[in-house]
What does this fold into?
Amino acid sequence: MSQRKDNKSSGRRSSRLAAARWTAAPLGIQLLYYFFAGFYRSTVQSISWSEFERTILARHAADSIEVINNEEAEVYIKKQFADDPYFRKAMHPYGMLSDGPHYSFRLGSVEELQKKLDESEGQLQIGQRARLV
It folds into this structure.
């Protein structure tokens, strides 16, 4: 009779454990998703247009600019600048070389961005082959 009680209590424990696992598994998966989704976004540094112009365009360090939803520009830095002290933090988040984007800034409009780029590139005397489009 005591053996029967042990089997019943053991069965209840294992069913509680299984229920706890089924509850914890989706929560764990959701936490992992938020961690890795946040990991990507946290590596992109937000800057202003003037900082972009002064530190990235002036050094000819921008490889490309990608416009997202006509609201935000994401900037990719040339790989040759990976060890530059200014770009090291953005290009080596968590000690690994990142493909990017490395920086982002808010846009007024795509046309305004193009106008500002044309003006800045003209002032900085960037050759036609090196222009960002």
Q: What stands out?
A: The chain has two domains: 1-42, 45-130. The helical segments are 2-42, 49-57, 88-91, 110-123.
